Amino acid sequence: MTRQAASDLLWRHWREGRLLAAIPPDLAPADRGEAYRIQALLEPRSAHALYGWKIAATSLAGQRHIGADGPLAGRLLAEQVLSADAVVPLTGNQMRVAEPEVAFRIGADLPPRPEPYTVDEVMAAVADAHPAIEFPDSRLEAFERAGEAALIADNACAHLFVLGPPAREGWRTLDLAAMPTRIGAEGRAPHEGRGGNALDDPRLALTWLANALSGQGITLRAGEVVTTGTTAVPLPVEAGDVVRAELGGLGELTVRVGA
Description:
Blueprint: H1 2-16, H2 32-40, E1 52-56, H3 60-66, E2 72-76, E3 81-82, E4 87-88, E5 97-106, H4 119-124, E6 126-135, H5 148-153, E7 160-163, E8 180-185, E9 191-194, H6 202-215, E10 225-230, E11 235-236, E12 242-247, E13 251-257
């Protein structure tokens, strides 16, 4: 019941657009395992099958910023996914940033198993690669100081997500680690980065997720989308911005931010 109460508390604050100073001590997860069990209670609240997964804190700078010892996995619910021509709302969003990311659509199940998956095995299960933009957020008011367990329980800062078109044939030959990326909006300098800002290589980030899920007894399923972490310093966004992400040979994506 404690896990359900913690999930209910976070969900209520998301639904009401309110911030939470902290998860109360009697409900707060003590470690990553307990935090992921709380997070899992979010999934049945969706009216649809799970859309996919996100990975947060895939750089050392990102981990230091939120006090995490490593990457964090979060669930992407179908209700959080917007089409590229939709207007991205900022209402209730305290982070107000956009992140350029490499996303993969899974083509074959990767079920739990005792031995870790290799990069080659995981990439063989990938159907497509896409440019993507994530608009993260948290219900925890001081999310930088909340601790990794609280952030995992709060779905690893998953909020809104936009998937771009699939990359052209031949994308598998790209050096995704060295791939230049950029995100910007009119009137300010763009933020530039590289694919390797996501756990040294987006393919390594995807493999980390497959093995993290396997360790929890969860299958990474065909059809799910995984976004592998920001490839540049997140771009602050404001109402009315037109945000453009460029991810080397994977393609480009432009979205409009609403009031």
